[in-house]
Specification:
The protein starts with a strand and ends in a 24-residue tail after the last helix. The C terminus is likely disordered. The protein is an alpha/beta fold and about 250 residues long. It has one domain: TIM Barrel. About 40% of the residues lie in helices and about 10% in strands. It has 10 helices and 9 strands.
Length: about 250
Amino acid sequence: MVDLHSHILAGVDDGARTIDESLAIARAAVDSGVELMAATPHVRDDFPTTPETMERLVQETRTALRAAGIELELRSGGEISLGFLARLEPDELRRFGLAGNPRYVLFEFPYEGWPLGLETVVASMREEGITVVLAHPERSESVQVSPLQILPAVAEGALVQLTASSLTGAGGRRARQAADVLIERELAHLVAGDLHAPGARSGLDAAAEALGGGALAHWLTHDVPFAIAYDEPLPPRPPHRGRRRRRLGFRRD
């Protein structure tokens, strides 16, 4: 599996605090079947990570992984807040390209409120040859109330990245319900662990199991993130029967 969202770099944000914690996160990911991981430190007001810092820490972590005998391919990246975007020069933005691919960037979806101008930013990035990947929108209160609000951004070309814990239920009932709707309505494109600390498994294996395994689970946890990491065309979405519908406490349309 391929995990394109992690906070594995030590001491740069609210993720790993030391290189030992970085290695523990890596071991947990490998144990759950992850072969490639993107390091995506926060890039926002409280954690104004620079491309130079990210690149240095990625290289240091790669060296530590090799020394520890951990077979995990680590790529670069960043989780960029929409509000911080204007502070980045075009070259800096591309250096934060997801999994080292400058044609994709990971944007952090806010937990509260709706990101104003989201569709405009997605369309503008698309014109520049960059695809926006939206991180964990199902954990947003606004999306939980009305998941289909995300449709215009997807129509403009955004991809939606769900968090594994949302699919397993570990992220709470409302996040799971929103994630279910996004999958059923074909508004989700990949799943990621978003690991911040050791002691927790990546969750991609558990997320795949929660989806019932099969082609769609593989598409979300391997095929699409693999295509992003290796700059290949995105594979078509396989059909999905969906989980048994439950009574949900929000609007579907």
